[in-house]
Amino acid sequence: MNISLMELAKLLAVALPAGTIDAMITGFASLREARRGDLSFFSGDRHRQSLAGTQATAVLVPEGTPMPGNVTAIVVADPSAMFDTVVDKYGFHATPEHTGIHPSAVVAEGVFADPSRVAVGANAVVEEGALIGPDVEIGAGCYVGRSVHIGAGSKLFANVSVHEGCILGERVILHSGCVIGADGFGYEFVDGQHRKVRQSGIVQIDNDVEIGANSAVDRARFGRTWIGEGTKIDNLVQVGHNVVIGKHCILISGTAIAGSAQIGDYVVLAAQVGVAGHVTIGSQCTVAARGGVTKDLPAGSGIYMGFPAVPVAEERRRLAGSRRLPELLNRVKKLERDAASAKDSVD
């Protein structure tokens, strides 16, 4: 990146402060980590100390923000969104695969809707019966099983596995190490042994879903494991067999959802949340980090915390009470000593 402040202001359709000396922006960074030549942004009072000490050349700020003397303020209505605009134009973008099929790839005949509009990387395997839409990218080392359907504009980064019969919608993004359609974790204990239960269903992933690196979505025992349109899943997330996840949900790293759980629309599961099997979480609920959902949560019922997960106000009262336990224990011990002393004086 190499853009002048004047060019940057033109891109954002804003005016620079009077008397601004033009300078070059050569990178992006947070307020705390920025150096001369970097562009950063400020969007809230909790970062005010970082703003006061930043070494950035320019910072995107809301109107009326006090600035340190060595930093150029670029006043915009929404600093975070405008920063994204600049990064989207000048920042890092993953290099797209070259259109065509790498010579080392193994691809069955007749799997592409339009072979001239797909990209298949080195050592990828696409099995017979698969159907791949236009503008799909399949990275190096990927495996696409028999009868898999992948919709237009989807992208599989290197070393993704999509197993037999699974369905991906349009513009689905799967990051490296994703495994879609591995067997669900199903066993029955028979005659002193764990007997595997056949997993004969599929995984269906709807349009505009993105799944992070090394996450796994297991195939259903029967029917489908289903992830709804627009849902975004972080790295290292486990989705068990026959789970249904609604539209536009957010699942953060370390979350694990056991088999046959039902997740509504616009649900947020923060880092390391655990959801028990066959539990239903209604639409527009949020579970805070490390929460454990062991029973149904009604739709629209707000934020939950703790294990087992309870409404946030209840959990905060419990935590506040637990912090007072040492003090209360000392008071009880004192009362016991006073009672014992009173008894001794009476005796």
The average pLDDT value, as a whole number, equals 94
Assembly category? single chain
Number of helices: 5
- Beta-strand share of residues: 25-35%
Q: What spatial order of strands do you see in the largest sheet? A: 7-9-12-15-18-23-26-29-32-35-37-38
Q: What is the gyration radius calculated from CA atoms?
A: 27 Å
Name given to the CATH homologous superfamily of the largest domain: Hexapeptide repeat proteins
Architecture of the largest domain in CATH?
A: 3 Solenoid
Class of secondary structure makeup: alpha/beta
Classified by CATH, the class of the largest domain is: Mainly Beta
Cα shape? flat
Largest sheet composition: 12 strands, mixed
Count structural domains: 2
Extended strand count? 38
